[in-house]
Design goal:
This protein has 162 residues and is of the alpha+beta class. It contains four helices and nine strands, in the order βββαββααβββαβ. Strands 1, 3, 4, 5, 6 and 9 form a six-stranded mixed sheet that branches. It is globular and about 50 Å long.
């Protein structure tokens, strides 16, 4: 199956700071067989998809440059809904199902690591052309620290196979 990896930061990312295609490491609960760079036309569409379909509804807008997103708010409300869903998942765990392979404990673990419930991965920790592609938890932690009007900058974007 295929999905996307986004390099994202709170500061502008120069092209010389883009993570290299051969220097993407798989983070916790991820698997990457291979990845490829996306074309410029794919890039524009993927950034729109990120803002309008992957991230929580209405939380971001794509700026006219097509390369940055502006935070419009909504994290607190989203966080309340997310926390309620975690409580619901935790309540489903009982002693007879706690160790089931794909049972409620595993579903809770997945929800904690990947609050956006997406196959899209995010590189928010990178240096010298290397980065770790992770599920959405780290990205949502970053978003939780944003003020309304703050920008997110998009660096490298890869299509990956898992």
């Amino acid at each position: 199956m295929h999905s996307t990896i986004f390099q994202i930061a709170e500061q502008p990312i120069g092209t010389d700071e883009y993570v290299g295609i051969d220097h993407v490491e798989a983070g916790e609960m991820t698997s990457i067989d291979y990845c490829r760079e996306v074309s410029q036309s794919e890039r524009a569409e993927l950034i729109k998809t990120l803002a309008h379909r992957i991230l929580p509804a209405g939380m971001f807008s794509v700026n006219p440059d097509g390369e940055t997103l502006t935070y419009k708010g909504g994290f607190t409300e989203w966080s309340k809904e997310y926390t309620a869903s975690l409580h619901e998942k935790a309540e489903a765990i009982i002693e007879t199902n706690v160790f089931k392979c794909a049972g409620p404990a595993y579903r809770l673990q997945k929800a904690i690591a990947n609050p956006l419930d997406t196959d899209t991965l995010f590189i928010t920790n990178y240096t010298e052309g290397m980065g770790v592609a992770e599920r959405s938890r780290q990205l949502m932690r970053l978003i939780g620290s944003l003020q309304i009007g703050a920008k997110l900058y998009i660096g490298a974007i890869f299509d990956y196979h898992f």
